[in-house]
Amino acid sequence: QTSSFFLTGERLPTSSFYSILDSVTDETIIPFDTNATQIDCDSNGSFMQIRMDSFLPERFYKIMLKIERDGGNDIQTYDDFYFKVVK
After folding, report:
1. Residue 5: which pLDDT band, with cuts at 50, 70 and 90?
2. Residue 24, by phi and psi: left (phi above 0), alpha (psi -120 to 50) or beta?
3. pTM of the prediction?
4. E strand residue ranges, the chain
5. Would you call 37 helix, strand, or coil by DSSP?
6. Which of these, 54, 72, 68, 52, lies nearest to 18 by C-alpha position?
7. Closest CA relative to residue 74, chosen from 35, 18, 16
8. How far apart are CA 67 and CA 50, in angstroms?
9. Which of 41, 52, 15, 17 is nearest to 31 (CA)?
10. Please, which residues have CB within 8 angstroms of residue 29's CB and are 6 or more apart in sequence?
């Protein structure tokens, strides 16, 4: 049986959070926050809602993910997601 990866909505654990950093300076623009930066999910998968009007155009930013498991005893971070704000 064959199926497309894009047909299944993958979800992160409910205790997943994001932070936004400037990719050049590594300055934290949006820090991890257990309420404001929690990653949401629906039937299509995980997502986050970010107001883009506070970012400088023509600049690259890095998304850092923090995933907590086992009541916070197992924490993994990922920081290899980049995006550019365009005009």
Report:
1. low
2. alpha
3. 0.81
4. 16-22, 28-30, 40-42, 45-47, 59-69, 74-85
5. coil
6. 68
7. 16
8. 18
9. 17
10. 20, 21, 22, 54, 55, 61
- The β-bridge relationship of strands 16-22 and 45-47 is unpaired
**Which residue's structure tokens are 């047909």?**
7
**Residue 68 in contact with residue 74, Cβ under 8 Å?**
yes
How far is 35 from 10, CA to CA, in rounded Å?
22
- pLDDT range class, residue 70, cuts 50, 70, 90: confident
Q: What percent of the chain has pLDDT over 70?
A: 90
